[in-house]
Amino acid sequence: MKRRSYFRVCCDRVGVMASELRNLARQRAAGNESSWSCTSIVGFCGAAGLVGMLLWIEQSPTTSRQGPVAVTMAASLMTTSAPADAVQSPPPPAASCGDGKCEPPETANSCMADCPGVTTPVQCGEEPHSDPGGFAVVWGASHKTSTAADCCKACAEHAANPKNKKRPCNSWVFCNTSPQCWSLDTGNWHGFGECWLKWQADPTHPLYGQRGRFTADFRTKHANAHKTGKNPDGTRRNLSVPTHVPWTGGIMGTTVDRSVQWETGLDGMRSSNGDSTVLWRAWETREQNLARGVKPESMGSAWGDK
Questions:
Q1: What pLDDT score does 265 carry?
Q2: What is the C-alpha to C-alpha distance for residues 156 and 13, in angstroms, rounded to an integer?
Q3: How far is it, in rounded angstroms, from Cα 167 to Cα 172?
Q4: CB-side neighbour CA atoms (13 Å) of 20
């Protein structure tokens, strides 16, 4: 009986409020505006009705079958629904190997194509997955740095030293893969951190030994290049050809268009914009490189002079 009594009282109060609202509306139409706005009145009426309903719910027994339904109804009335046309933010795109960005969870081991990316100041001219050539002014096998940025810094310091004015460092190469970097000179072992400082005869026409991605034919032909002999620790060499050049390097002061993609194949290097060049080989003479098709402007006229 209590529930019905409270419900009847609430209904009566709501009825009185509705009658007062009609009277106020007539007064407003007659020009006698009330100090209350219609919005305030409606809000008050709604709140009063909700309070009455809650009082009725509060007095209902906990074992009533209508109790949970009533509570759910009250909760739904107090919940503000999201607009139907609300625009939800799309989820962030997942990291994709090959998009040129090294993003978690990508690592150098899981996605060599993107990682570790550019890690040096802009003046270093770094191009990931590249092996710039040139006349070696500091032998990398015995010159190691902790990072590619430190290698670039060493190149700048070498160039700033007046005693190196004949062949100042303008090209650097850093072994960016642990524990070692794959290379075509099969007689040598190249470990992480090797920092080669080089001099290019014409930085506007630079030399490269490897660049970008290795083609399938290239990887097949050289599959066993580093699988004979032993490593420095005495273990058997078993280094497979990676998907991309494991070195990183740069031509100092140049701007690299990283939207251009390179690949290294059996017949040389090709870019996505149609450029091509043959591989420069450090162990060959100037004449041998020229005979294979290396551009004369890249080799210079005094390459072998001491």
A1: 96
A2: 87
A3: 13
A4: 14
